[in-house]
Specification:
By secondary structure, the protein is of the alpha/beta class. 33% of the residues lie in helices and 21% in strands.
């Protein structure tokens, strides 16, 4: 069932887990599919009370999205993988009215001098990362330089794993509602989830450990991995550096199975080679640049979901043209759980 909105040529489908609220139809600008919906849990068999949250969703081309859903559904779960950004995609943008911290920004290594040095690097390189005038080759070199200097400071400053655990415990970071249910749904169907991050895998794993209190055998973190000595002190980094400009499936061979760190007894569900053979993709990100996470994969069908958390009016048009589905205002993950249930229905092959 679907509703055709009179002020738009786009169809918003209730099968994606939304219920259209007619009283908000005045919010729909011409030719921009934008409406308020309720993210429903009851339709996907989730436990808990009836406390659904209102969220705003934008679909740029519903007919194209319908075709993609049908194609992925027809191919079955064995052809599907999920690629997801970590910071402000899996995690919330705002917590109790304050900006949530990123997995990299929360780190306090217990050495104020080196914390200050890392902050100085951030203030110098961060504007260069988003400069529109620096050629991509030069920008890539600068990012490698930034990440390399930062990693050196972490080693020289005596970072310990205990400092990571304490930093996460003190951090203002939380997952969107529905993330656990999404991971559980995908795990039950042996669908791999690749968390791509230019940050630090050990911090991401610690956030998952402390905030979710469980692990998932189908989840891998593709990020920079630390090496600690027997005393828990950082001594080196493993493999090639992953930074903001090479965070994609070319880096897949560096993925560490999450269960190895979190103590699951089950073996890995997919090797890197087998994951690359899964040519249908559900991609989740909060920046248009996150669409590049599927670079290096010769995919057949990709459905992209964007979370636009801030500067909405200025960024909405670009997000709508880039992502198949856009959630606004720090939305929960329930709509994505429902989408996954449509891609992999009960009894599907």
């Amino acid at each position: 069932m679907s509703y055709r909105l009179q002020s738009s040529s786009i169809i918003i489908n209730t099968r994606l887990g939304f219920t259209y609220s007619p009283k908000h139809s005045s919010l729909l600008p011409r030719f921009t599919p934008r409406a308020w919906f309720r993210c429903c849990r009851s339709q996907i068999g989730m436990d808990g009370d009836d406390a659904s949250k209102a969220c705003e969703v934008v679909i740029g081309d519903s007919e194209l999205l319908d075709r993609k859903i049908a194609a992925i559904r027809s191919a079955g779960p064995k052809k599907l993988q999920v690629i997801v950004d970590f910071d402000r995609t899996l995690t919330r943008y705002s917590i109790d009215g304050q900006p949530g911290q990123s997995s990299h920004g929360l780190l306090q290594q217990g050495n104020p001098e080196y914390d200050a040095k890392r902050q100085q690097l951030y203030e110098y390189y961060h504007p260069l990362e988003f400069s529109a005038t620096i050629p991509i080759e030069e920008k890539t070199r600068l990012m490698e330089e930034w990440w390399g200097k930062t990693h050196t400071l972490l080693i020289e400053g005596g970072l310990t794993y205990d400092a990571i655990k304490q930093s996460v415990a003190n951090a203002r970071i939380a997952f969107r509602e529905g993330v656990v249910e999404l991971f559980k749904f995908l795990e039950e169907r042996d669908i791999p989830v690749l968390i791509f991050s230019a940050g630090l895998a050990d911090i991401i794993e610690e956030v998952l450990r402390q905030k979710l209190h469980r692990s998932f055998k189908n989840v891998k973190v593709v990020s920079n991995q630390m090496v600690f000595d027997s005393d828990g002190c950082l001594v080196s980094f493993k493999g090639k550096t992953i930074h903001s400009l090479n965070k994609n499936e070319h880096a897949l061979d560096m993925a560490a199975p999450l269960h190895d760190q979190l103590g699951d007894i089950d073996g890995p569900t997919d090797s890197s080679a087998l994951v690359k053979k899964r040519t249908n993709v559900l991609l989740l990100g909060d920046h248009i640049g996150d669409l590049g996470m599927s670079d290096g994969l010769n995919y057949e069908t990709r459905i992209s979901v964007g979370f636009l958390n801030d500067n909405i009016e200025n960024s909405l048009d670009g997000y709508r043209k880039s992502f198949d589905i856009v959630y606004l205002n720090d939305a929960p993950m329930w709509g994505v759980v429902e989408l996954a249930s449509q891609l992999c229905p009960a009894g599907g092959g």
